[in-house]
């Protein structure tokens, strides 16, 4: 389909914040952060503007990740005001180059203000970021440099545990036992770290009520061993599995979240790297399993230093394997 010069002009010159201003929406300054401005109109109506006014999303929409309701300024105007594309053109012509007023919403008295959850800011930043998509820098990093099968990437994206940052950096969400996001692991061709101001809990994919919980030291390792077990070892009949990464830490959030998942009869597997760091994490996990009455075992890469090296050393399937029935959910 040929591009439309006028629509492209609107995308470059009309700010989503200006459209919301004119429609009577106001800025919730207390819950806005740099890069994600929250607008409210009435009870239960929230839109968040991202990308310096070029995009938006609805945090209350039913979808998650790729299914979340989001779009550009054209989709926003049509959502708010209706009508045909011709009506949209007429309205946006009047707003080209107009700066947003960013009118703040009135706040209740201090005695009526509820204290936001500690997870509110990281959750907002997470929702403002885009999930990786086929062909994107983050997707290529996982599939080409890390040899993660595309079926596994798609399953993790659908579970809403992956996002993409600048320079092709891949983000893996850490959640508490209550589902609150506390931060994310960040990994890319030139960068390795954790989100600024975030707290480590666990990155996870799989079944929350799993009989087997496999704990690794990094999200790349969690994705790697999941791929190895699902596509190479074919353990589809071994019962529900939850693959976890601690992100290289083991603080109070991590211990509490893991403890909430353990119960008598669960098999906790320390799938750690070879070396002193892996040995120490395995020892802590064994003590945690004993305290919960759970089983414990240690699993190390047979021929490599870590699980991603192990995955990359294996020959990739010649034909795409069917998508796994992971029923992936975040913890």
Structural descriptors:
single chain, 331 residues, DNA Primase, Chain A, 5-stranded mixed sheet, 18% strand, TOPRIM_DnaG/twinkle
Q: Secondary-structure blueprint of this entry?
A:
Elements: H1 5-13, H2 16-22, E1 26-27, E2 36-40, E3 46-50, E4 55-57, E5 70-71, H3 73-81, H4 85-93, H5 120-128, H6 137-145, H7 150-158, E6 162-164, E7 170-175, E8 181-188, E9 191-194, E10 203-206, E11 212-216, H8 219-232, E12 241-245, H9 252-261, E13 267-270, H10 276-292, E14 295-298, H11 307-313
Parallel strand pairs: 11-12, 11-13, 13-14
Antiparallel strand pairs: 1-2, 2-3, 3-4, 4-5, 6-7, 7-8, 8-9, 10-12
* Count of separate structural domains: 2
Looking at CATH, which topology of the largest domain would you report? Dna Topoisomerase Vi A Subunit, Chain: A, domain 2
**CATH architectural category of the largest domain:** 3-Layer(aba) Sandwich
Cα(first) to Cα(last) distance is 41 Å
Strand content: 15-25%
Number of strands: 14
CATH top level class name of the largest domain:
Alpha Beta
- Mean pLDDT across residues: 84
How many H/I helices?
A: 11
Pfam families: DUF3991, Toprim_2
Region (Disordered): 307-331
Protein name: DUF3991 domain-containing protein
Domain DUF3991: 140-206
């Amino acid at each position: 389909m040929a591009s439309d010069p006028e629509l492209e002009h609107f995308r470059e010159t009309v700010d989503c914040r200006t459209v919301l201003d004119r429609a009577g929406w106001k800025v919730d300054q207390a819950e806005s952060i740099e890069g994600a401005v929250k607008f409210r109109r009435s009870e239960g109506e929230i839109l968040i503007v991202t990308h310096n006014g070029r995009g938006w999303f609805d945090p209350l929409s039913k979808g998650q990740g790729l299914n979340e309701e989001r779009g550009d300024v054209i989709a926003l105007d049509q959502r708010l005001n209706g009508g045909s594309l011709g009506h949209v053109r007429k309205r946006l012509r009047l707003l080209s180059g107009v700066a947003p007023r960013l009118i703040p919403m009135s706040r209740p008295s201090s005695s009526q203000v509820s204290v936001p959850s500690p997870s509110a800011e990281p959750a907002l930043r997470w929702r403002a970021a885009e999930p990786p998509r086929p062909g994107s820098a983050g997707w290529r990093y996982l599939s080409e440099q890390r040899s993660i099968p595309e079926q596994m990437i798609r399953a993790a994206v659908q579970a809403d545990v992956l996002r993409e940052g600048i320079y092709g950096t891949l983000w893996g969400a850490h959640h508490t036992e209550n589902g609150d996001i506390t931060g994310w692991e960040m990994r890319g061709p030139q960068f390795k770290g954790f989100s600024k101001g975030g707290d480590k809990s666990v990155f996870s994919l799989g079944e929350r009520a799993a009989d087997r919980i496999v704990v690794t030291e990094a999200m790349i390792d969690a994705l790697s061993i999941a791929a190895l077990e699902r596509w190479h070892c074919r353990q589809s009949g071994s019962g529900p599995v939850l693959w976890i990464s601690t992100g290289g830490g083991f603080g109070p959030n991590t211990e509490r979240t893991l403890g909430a998942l353990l119960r008598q009869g669960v098999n906790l597997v320390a799938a750690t790297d070879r070396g002193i760091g892996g040995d120490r994490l395995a020892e802590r996990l064994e003590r945690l399993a004993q305290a919960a009455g759970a089983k414990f075992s240690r699993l190390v890469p047979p021929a490599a230093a870590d699980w991603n090296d192990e995955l990359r050393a294996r020959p990739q399937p010649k034909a795409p394997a069917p998508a796994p029935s992971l029923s992936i959910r975040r913890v």
